[in-house]
Amino acid sequence: MTDPTAIVLLSGGLDSVTTLAIARAAGRTCYALSFRYGQRHEHELVLARRLATTLGAARHLVVDIDLAQFGGSALTANIDVPKDRPIESMSGDIPITYVPARNTVFLSYALAFAEVTGAEEIYLGVNAVDYSGYPDCRPEFIDAFEKMANLATKAAVEGRHLSIQAPLLLLTKAEIITRGLELGVDYGSTSTCYDPDAAGAACGRCDACALRLRAFADLGLRDPAPYQGAAS
Q1: What b/e string do you get for 47-59 counting C-beta neighbours within 10 Å, with b at 16 or more?
Q2: For residues 9 and 122, what is the distance between their CA atoms, to the nearest angstrom?
Q3: Closest by alpha carbon to 73, among 52, 94, 56, 49?
Q4: In this structure, are residues 122 and 142 in contact, taking their beta carbons and an 8 Å threshold?
Q5: CB under 8 Å to 115, separation ≥6 — which residues?
Q6: Is residue 151 scored above 90 in pLDDT?
Q7: Residue 130 pLDDT > 80
Q8: CA–CA separation, 75 vs 78, rounded Å?
Q9: What CA–CA distance (Å, rounded) separates 231 from 209?
Q10: In CATH, 5-183 is 3.40.50.620
Q11: pLDDT at residue 90, rounded to an integer
Q12: What is the 3-state secondary structure (H, E, C) of the chain?
């Protein structure tokens, strides 16, 4: 018997890379799926390619779409990325780094890929504990998309149920890092920053950097990723 196949959304960031490692540890044959969607932090795709190979993905696709033509986000438009926000305030509102409908769009592509490849699972690294208030990282969204997926596809009509796996959903960022380290993830080769420099070094001041740095500090560890100046 062959291992079950899973589609894994892979950005090159801490969460998605840990998710790929978890899927591989669970015995899945993983097809990694990344997106060049007009994001300012496209350096993550360089890392995603490398990590897909390192973590044993059977295949890695990078899909080109253009969410930047809609704008509405600091990640895809000429809008400043918020910096130096208190961590306690991050989940109080929906920040300007939210990309409208991004996870819905990404999951829809993953769903199409799953139908073609025969995959019965889609893995994604959303997290509803240490996160920046994004509505498409909530358990209710994941449940709703799974229900939709099993109404909208030929595979489901013919009896092949598809499940959405979000193994990090209820973990703290520190717990995510601990799990990844247990699985041998090299976090020095991941990029979480919303506003890295041209060489890919993280700013150390955006919401994503703040959450990541606090998690490593909580574990008594130094973040091995490159940062601008002495942010790490």
Answers
A1: bbbebbebbebee
A2: 8
A3: 94
A4: no
A5: 153, 154, 155
A6: yes
A7: no
A8: 8
A9: 9
A10: yes
A11: 77
A12: CCCCEEEEECCCCHHHHHHHHHHHHCCCEEEEEEEECCCCCCHHHHHHHHHHHHCCCCEEEEEECCHHHCCCCCCCCCCCCCCCCCHHHCCCCCCCCCCCCHHHHHHHHHHHHHHHHCCCEEECCCCCCCCCCCHHHCHHHHHHHHHHHHHHCHHHHCCCCCEEECCCCCCCHHHHHHHHHHCCCCHHHCCCCCCCCCCCCECCCCHHHHHHHHHHHHCCCCCCCCECCCCC
- Quick check: 14 and 22 in contact, CB under 8 A? no
Q: Which two tokens stand for residue 82?
A: 């918020």
**CA angle centred on 110, ends 106 and 114, rounded to 5°:** 170
Alpha-carbon separation of residue 215 from 21, 54, 73, 95 (angstroms) = 19, 24, 25, 20
Tokens of 117: 């490849």
Q: For residue 129, what are its two tokens?
A: 């504990």
Radius of gyration of the chain from its Cα atoms, rounded to whole angstroms: 17
Single-letter amino acid code for the residue at 127? N
Return d(Cα 52, Cα 49) in angstroms, integer: 5
| 126, 103 Cβ separation under 8 angstroms | yes
Domain ranges of the chain: 5-183
pLDDT in tens, 79-116: 999 999 988 777 668 889 999 999 999 999 999 999 99
**Is this structure's pTM higher than 0.85?**
yes
Distance from chain centroid for Cα 177: 14
